[in-house]
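We were asked to recover a plausible sequence for a given structure. The inputs and outputs are reproduced exactly as logged, with field labels preserved.

PROBLEM: sequence recovery
POSITIONS: 417
GIVEN STRUCTURE:
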């Protein structure tokens, strides 16, 4: 009797959630739990969940995350370097770019960027992430020269740099073949590429967001060529603007297909659209950014559809904020991203979340959801696991949900009672 009882599997939170879900949702999720690849129709079913179905998606995504990657939540100590905000591309969703004559246009010198990198390393950074606008008169060899300057000074620093849009621009400017251009960047010290400029990998959506941006075919070509040369990349998707859930599913399945061939993606990062200071929103062409349920669905859907092919799903705390980030880390995500030290792109578009989170703050936040913090390298090699809290772990008041709610309330009335 005792033996029979001990053989029975204890009911898990996802068992209960699956029982409450509609059969089409439960069937797709059970298939994902069994390690099978889901197709487009199943993806669309999961992308449109609400209520009990949403809870089932989130619970199963969290369980798949546990099986694929375990209970650690990783982060990288890094610095973002946005070398210029001058750009000719004119993406309607971008609040960052400026014309060359704008009073707040800037182009940091190479010396400044090297100095910022040196400062970052002194503060414990293992990576710099370099991206910028595309100025009209940029020298196509600028990207190479900047890499060389940083690597000459800091040969061990991981340089994660240049979106597929910037690489395509460099190719256009130099008229070199893509492969040769990438080899030149690699030779100059490029370690990996941010998979940004992906937005939604659908040419019709891209035309409405930015007709001048590189096409889906070009994005794929840059990524596949980089992977074939041993240059890994991240992958991203911008959601919460003009797209519909079917676009998320196609985008994720396309990334999964590339990954099956190349194995070159280190992570997937959903990027919620920050609408406040963008033409796209101000002209009435986009919804006002993503909703809370979209945040949960996109992170969970990514975990379920990518199901181990891309092992890491990262939250963008700059776009989500901390409370939402922690919720998404319980909905399939496993990585908190970078400490950043400085981030101007999301801030310029109106994001409220800041410039820098200390590693101790990351760890304190991670412990609030009962997971184990670990510092990683860009390649996801674990540098240190923090089994126990230490003196640097502290959650400042401004990171708490109560402070965020209090700060967004109207001021206290001064008179009238
Ligand atoms: S998103 Fe990038 S390419 Fe587009 S306008 Fe902004 S800086 Fe330029």
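RECOVERED SEQUENCE:
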């Amino acid at each position: 009797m005792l033996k029979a009882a001990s053989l029975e599997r204890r009911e898990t939170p996802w068992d209960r959630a699956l029982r409450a879900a509609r059969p089409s949702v439960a069937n797709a999720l059970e298939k994902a739990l069994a390690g099978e690849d889901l197709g487009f129709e199943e993806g669309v079913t999961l992308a449109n969940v609400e209520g009990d179905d949403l809870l089932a998606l989130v619970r199963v995504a969290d369980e798949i995350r546990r099986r694929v990657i375990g209970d650690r939540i990783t982060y990288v100590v890094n610095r973002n370097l946005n070398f210029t905000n001058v750009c000719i591309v004119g993406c309607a969703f971008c609040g960052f770019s400026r014309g060359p004559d704008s009073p707040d246009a800037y182009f940091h010198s190479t010396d400044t960027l090297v100095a910022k990198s040196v400062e970052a390393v002194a503060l414990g950074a293992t990576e710099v992430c370099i991206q910028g606008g595309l100025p009209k008169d940029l020298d196509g060899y600028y990207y190479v020269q900047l890499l060389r300057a940083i690597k000459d000074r800091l040969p061990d620093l991981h340089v994660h740099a240049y979106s597929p849009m910037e690489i395509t621009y460099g190719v256009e400017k130099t008229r070199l073949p893509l492969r040769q251009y990438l080899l030149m960047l690699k030779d100059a010290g490029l370690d990996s590429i941010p998979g940004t400029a992906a937005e939604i990998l659908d040419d019709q959506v891209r035309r409405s967001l930015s007709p001048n941006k590189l096409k889906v075919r070009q994005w794929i070509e840059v990524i596949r060529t980089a992977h074939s040369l041993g240059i890994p990349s991240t992958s991203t998707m911008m959601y919460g603007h003009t797209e519909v859930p079917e676009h998320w599913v196609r985008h994720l399945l396309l990334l999964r297909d590339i990954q099956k061939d190349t194995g070159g993606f280190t992570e997937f990062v959903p990027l919620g659209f920050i609408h406040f200071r963008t033409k796209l929103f101000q002209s009435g062409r986009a919804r006002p950014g993503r909703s809370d349920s979209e945040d949960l669905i996109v992170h969970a859907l990514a975990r379920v559809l990518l199901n181990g092919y891309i092992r890491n799903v990262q939250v963008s705390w700059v776009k989500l904020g901390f409370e939402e980030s922690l919720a998404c880390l319980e909905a399939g995500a496993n990585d908190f991203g970078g400490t950043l030290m400085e981030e101007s792109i999301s801030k310029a578009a109106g994001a409220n979340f800041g410039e820098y989170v200390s590693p101790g703050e990351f760890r304190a936040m991670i412990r609030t959801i009962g997971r184990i913090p670990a510092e990683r390298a860009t390649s996801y090699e674990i540098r240190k696991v923090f089994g126990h809290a230490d003196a640097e772990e502290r959650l400042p008041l401004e990171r708490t949900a109560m402070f965020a709610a209090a700060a967004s309330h109207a001021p206290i009335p001064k008179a009238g009672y």
